[in-house]
Design a protein that fits this description.
Helices cover 17% and strands 36% of the residues. By secondary structure, it is α+β, with helices and mostly antiparallel strands. The chain folds into two domains: 4-50, no CATH class; 55-182, Nucleoside Triphosphate Pyrophosphohydrolase. It is elongated and about 60 Å long. The structure holds zinc ion.
């Protein structure tokens, strides 16, 4: 079955995530590889299948003296909104190490991961977010990379209307619902 050329119209080109094969530079087209799965981007030159995989992100909720550490984002998306420390997992990196690394980079805090809180994913959103509960073991919380401000909030003072992402609110609700309010590192 021939792949449908993606560049037939400008509208199709705009919708396409990628137009050219990363291996040979040939045009990519959409083709059904397996009936039960979405169409894939397939190179019409060399047949390379360009899988658009999910992105994996990690986050860590840290309680400091009963207050929750949140960071004000200094980057888009969600510039100026509050989120717990986190970021993307690098290829080949363990997710736990990514959570510890991102926390250190963004908040200058060294953490030990206490447990997995939950995993969050959404339809038509490529990002999967793995959220841990962490305990501070060193450093002082302050604004690091990509952060305007680091601040701790009482559980009843969390800025629910100024949180960065749906997963931010969902994870904080899960954290508080599980009776972690008393959690004090
Ligand atoms: Zn190719």
């Amino acid at each position: 079955m021939d792949a449908k050329p993606i560049l037939e119209t400008y509208e199709e080109w705009k919708r396409a995530d990628y137009a050219f094969c990363p291996k040979c530079g040939g045009p990519l087209g959409r083709r059904s590889i397996k009936a039960s799965e979405p169409d894939r981007l397939v190179c019409q030159g060399c047949g390379f299948v360009f899988f658009l995989d999910p992105k994996v992100a990690v986050g860590t909720i840290i309680s400091l003296d009963g207050r929750i550490l949140l960071l004000k984002r200094a980057i888009e998306p969600a510039y100026g909104k509050w989120v717990f420390p986190g970021g993307f997992v690098d290829r080949g990196e363990r997710v736990e190490e990514a959570a510890i690394r991102e926390t250190r980079e963004e908040s200058n805090l060294d953490v030990r991961l206490v447990r997995l809180l939950n995993i969050y994913s959404y339809s038509n959103n490529p990002v999967i977010i793995i959220v841990y509960v962490g305990e501070a073991v060193g450093g002082d919380a302050s604004a690091g990379d990509e952060t305007l401000e680091a601040r701790t909030f009482e559980p009843d003072a969390i800025p629910w209307h100024d949180l960065a992402f749906p997963s931010t609110a969902q994870a904080l609700r899960d954290f508080l619902a599980r009776g972690d309010r008393s959690f004090r590192p």
